[in-house]
Amino acid sequence: MKSILSLTILFAMVLLLGGCATPSEERVKAILKTQINDYELCKVYFRTWQGGLRNQEYRYKTYKRTVEEKDRRELDCYIFPELKDKEPYMEERIKLYEEQGGW
């Protein structure tokens, strides 16, 4: 019984701390500009599971911020050898969301 309760509490904490906390737009932009280096930004740019439990509107905003920051830095993410075989998807989803309201 204790293990079930512990697992339930752990699961609730993961949801609260990892998936449900939404920082302000300004905070997210500041984090992208100051705390994430080029390599980490490129990893986020190719990460397909990012925001997977969130709705499309949330993911659209996240994708848009990520792409804007990548473009602002004029990054070519293929300069990192471990990312050379990755396929970008954010721009396509941004376009679909803006044109059709979803993907």
Describe the structure.
The protein has helices at 2-20, 25-34, 38-46, 56-72, 90-100. It has one domain (24-100). It is mainly α and 103 residues long. Helix 3 (38-46) runs antiparallel to helix 4 (56-72) and helix 4 (56-72) crosses helix 5 (90-100). Helices cover 64% and strands 0% of the residues. The termini are far apart.
From the structure above, extract its key features.
mainly alpha, 64% helix, 5 helices, 103 residues
Summarize the SSE layout with pairings:
Layout: H1 2-20, H2 25-34, H3 38-46, H4 56-72, H5 90-100
Helix pairs in contact: 3-4, 4-5
The gist of it:
With 103 residues, this protein is an all-alpha fold.
Number of domains: 1
Give the CA-CA distance, first to last residue.
Answer: 43 Å
Find the count of extended strands (DSSP E, 2+ residues). 0
Reading the helices and strands in chain order gives HHHHH
Derived structural class: mainly alpha
